[in-house]
Every structure is written in structure tokens, then in C-alpha cells.
Amino acid sequence: MNPSNKPHKSMKESGIHGAIQHDGTVKKVDANSVLVSITSCSACSGCHAEGMCGISGKEEKIIDVTGKYNVSPGDTVTIMMERATGYKAVALSYLGPLALLIVSLIVLDSMSVNEAAAGLISVSLLLPYFVVLYLFRKSINRSFIFKLKT
After folding, report:
1. What is the pTM of this model?
2. Which three-class secondary structure string do you get for 70-98?
């Protein structure tokens, strides 16, 4: 675990307009976009036992940053995202499903549905939720705006 409770060295919080910054490497440059690879690390990635632990992990993510930038593949860049955009991602991916589970359990319990059946029905309601997110992924992706720090 990270005992200092500070952000990982590749993710910083900027005081300018509440932006979140992440360091990455340019993978591909097109006429109107740049593909940047960032490595997402677990909170315990700095632990001395990381190599022996099965729960720590790093994951590479590719971010498409729209716009024209004077960068080349292999360059190290900083991606910026507004904090509100991060909150929206958390709401869609974690808070929405949690609220759906809680509300459906309360409604089914008030209807005197068997607890096991209520649990299965509540969990099964997550499938349509994530299918809707998948169907609207393009419009949702357009609302997540990333910029390169110049």
C-alpha cells in the first residue's frame, strides 16, 4: 500500500481548473488525433512485495486525444482531463450500478419476494444497464474530453 496517501507518480492533480493529469507515451499520431498509452497502476504498486503479490497490477490503456499536436511516436506527454469528467465516469461505472442494485433490492423486498430471488433479479438487472451503456458508448465517449498539456 502507499502509506503516504499521495497520488501515484504518473497521476497528478493540477490546481488549474481542477484538472487531473496522467503521464503517457505517444503511440500514434494522426491528422486530428493522438493515441497515447498510459499505465494505470494499483495503489500498492510501490510496495516492496509487489513482484510476489498476486493482487497488485499494472494495466496499459490507450487514450485517443483529439486535436492537432506537435508530437511524435515515443514522446512522453501529459494528458489532462477535467475532474468533473472523472466524476462522471465514476458515476456511470460504479454509482449507477450500485444504486440500481440497492433500489431493486428495496423494491423487491417490499414486494415480499424471496431474498435469494430478489438478489438474483437485482444482479440480473445490471445486464440491461451495461448493455445500455455499451449501446450509447460513442455518445458517452464524446463527453470525455482529453487534452495534451502543452
Report:
1. 0.63
2. CCCCCCEEEEEEEHHHHHHHHHHHHHHHH
